[in-house]
Amino acid sequence: xxxxxxxxxxxxxxxxxxxxVRKTHDFLHEDYMLEIKSLLPSILPSVELYVSKNEAGxxxxxxxxxxxxxxxxxxxPDFMGKGIGRALxxxxxxxxxxxxxxxxxxxxxxxxxxxxxxxVTLGRSEVDGLGKPYPLLHMEYRR
Length: 143
Fold this sequence. Notes:
globular
């Protein structure tokens, strides 16, 4: 079930974000990961947020979109490989008309995921959105 998130969902969204990043972003330094986490409460209101909940009503994944672009898509590690990421991406593409995403080049799992569902790499930046040396691949949906 994918539904629109509200500000009351921010804490569990941040928990999912942190668990997912710790599992998939081993290239990030701890200090930088904590810096990003501290910024999330001010970033989350700037995107349209959607959550995926399990049968018990727990948030297990989330999607943030803005300006025709997937800005964030994270799934809790306990629920990875169960189709949640694919469902969130499909929702973003088919229901919200979001066709672009930036992916950390060092996050091979995410790069492979987006390629598998039909995204292609159009460009690359040497730094991330905060200007740190974590290259981004600029991808676009082409199927």
